Amino acid sequence: MTTVTAPPRTSKQMVWVTTHRRTLGRYILPTVFILGLIGLQELLTQNGALPATYFPPASEIAAALIQELSAPALGSALSSTLSTWLMAILLSVGLGTIVGVLLGLIVPLEAILRPIIEFLRPVPSVALIPLVVLTIGTGSQSALFLAVFAAFWQVLVPAIIGVRAAHPVALDTARSYSFSLWQRIRWIQLPSMLPYLATAVRLATSTSLILIVTAEIIIQMPGIGYEITMSRSVGNPARMYAYIALSGAAGILLNGLVRRLENKLFATHGLGGTA
Amino acid sequence: MKTLVAASTTDRGRLAFGTFGAVAAVTAWFLISEHSNNAYFPPLRAILEQAWNYWTTAEGVTNILASLQTLAGGLSLAIVFGVVIGLIIGQLPVVEQTVSPTLEFARAIPATALIPFAMMLFGVSSEMKIFLIALGCVWPVLLSTADGARRVDRTLSDTARAFQVSGTQRQLYVILPAVLPRILVGIRIAIPLSLILMVTSEMVGVQRGLGFVITQAQATFQLLTMWSGILILGILGFTLTFLYTLVERRLLRWSDPRGDRSS
Prior knowledge:
Chain A has 275 residues and is mainly alpha-helical. Chain A contains ten helices and no strands. Chain B has 263 residues and is mainly alpha-helical.
């Protein structure tokens, strides 16, 4: 290192800062920031600057969270929210991909259906809640329907674009080797869709979680959303914040899972996870 | 078949095919539902009549305006905060490293999970709706802006530095135009989200707005009003997205159309 010529004390500090810059940036600064925020919140609530009825101190929220961890409500709320979410993702990605491939390959059909897609896509699917309550009921199928309705379009549109994004040379090659339709889809169109699908799945993940939590709050069906709104109405804000934090944790967990899956898919297709 | 495919790839062909599809779908809905005895799926004609009768009255217009006002308020707050904070985070790596795990967490909270929180803070009021929309929609704008600010073209920022453009001028005339495409992408993601949050917050007890009307109609079994409200919401969503596409195109006319706007 060139720092040898510098005065010994600064050089040591310099070396320390340069070698630990990564750790400093990646772990220490964010940790200090989060702890600082929590400390500030605790301080402001303890001395009454923030009204305690709305903002219980962080320590109370943490206590509520720990208490919930051993309570039966948490397990059943998490499992019903997450199982509905998993179903919603599988259904919306599955249906979106299949219909996307179909419409991507059959251009006239896509041209006919395009205005209908463009009209249905921006409909806020929560607007369907009253209709869904009347026709499907207040069970978890309602949440599933709403989530799939919202996420399906987010998969379908990129899927169509993805099918069309197949490289013309690859398509010509496939033709000259007389690939069957299935071979063409499997080896050319599906791989060309993958980067588009990856983004779509990430969008669909958060959208469907939002819709499921919404359904739980509005229709009052069991799940994380229901626990949040119930904690508020029984006047237990600490528990409400604990469940909001849990919903964030669930979101992070799901995003992480999806990203991991994505990297795996890309690794096998040699695209190196760049999209 | 060949000619069909060829026809559907030209602009005029697509327009014709699309018009055909739209007309066919509406006609099919109209005809199939005309003699429907199912109370849940009333005839389209009755829905349209009800839409005309209810949403043109003073009450209907008030409700639409109430929804639009909160939507505009919440979205503008989200855009202002998202862009300002995004620009700061994107240009100062230290700040980005410091706050990014916290932001990651805050963003992962499904926006509607914060409805009880917003209700506790503001009660059942239009401030609650605006707060909720702003809180939920700020993330896509913020993250997209920060992402854009991080990758401002090197030549561009070096040129600005060589001409000693700095401070506010640099932010306004160099960074902001360069980041604009990404800001617009963020807003594009925020718009549908804002509609979801608007409707949802109106469903939990605010006495005005589209969401209120359709839930109320469901509770009192006025299915025609409910359907007409859903229809209006659909049209609203479609119109907003369409208008936004026009705005986007106008604002980005100067930029390279082949530029990275896909993500």
